[in-house]
Design brief:
Large ribosomal subunit protein uL10, Alpha-Beta Plaits, alpha+beta, Ribosomal_uL10_bac, 2 domains, single chain
Length: 171
């Protein structure tokens, strides 16, 4: 890899570190290619990505970025899992680490907040952006449906009373 390629890689990594809601650093030593492809597929499905980069270049790219605290985790065979959604990458990484003992989460960063392995697990258990939006929409929509039900209820009650009265007169 020549100097221009290294500079381009550092720029790409810098953009990743700036744009990502969460970055998870893990060791992947001993994983097969098929296992790594499975991890990439799961991460892509959740809206995240997986990147293997030289630790030295990643540390250079981290300089001055909000998640610079993860530089200490960049030793050995490391992989970066990241996503714009602050929960997606952490959730997939945590789930994958439970299923594969060769994938070991070292830590990560959420914005400028450093995360240890327990912090990554805590982030993974948080609801995703879509789940939060759905719960907010349901909270907003519930009063409206209750009002519509309350407005419609008296009319249905009157109709049932009238039906009952008609039945009594017919009998």
């Amino acid at each position: 890899m020549d100097r221009a390629q290294k500079e381009q890689l550092v720029d790409e990594l810098g953009q990743i570190f700036e744009a990502s809601g969460v970055v998870v650093v893990a060791h992947y030593e001993g994983m097969t290619v098929a296992q790594m492809q499975d991890l990439r597929a799961q991460m892509r499905e959740a809206g995240g990505s997986v990147r293997v980069a030289k630790n030295r270049l990643a540390k250079i790219a981290l300089d001055g970025k909000p998640c610079a605290s993860i530089a200490d985790y960049l030793t050995g065979m490391t992989v970066l899992a990241y996503s714009e959604d602050p929960v997606a990458a952490a959730r997939i990484a945590d789930k994958y680490a439970k299923a594969n003992d060769k994938f070991v989460i070292l830590g990560g960063a959420m914005g400028d907040t450093a995360l240890d392995p327990a912090g990554v697990k805590a982030v993974a258990q948080m609801p995703s952006r879509e789940e939060l939006i759905a719960s907010i929409v349901s909270c907003i929509g519930a009063p409206a449906s209750n009002i519509a039900g309350a407005i419609g209820a008296p009319a249905s009650n009157i109709a049932s009373i009238l039906t009952t009265l008609e039945e009594r007169e017919a009998a």
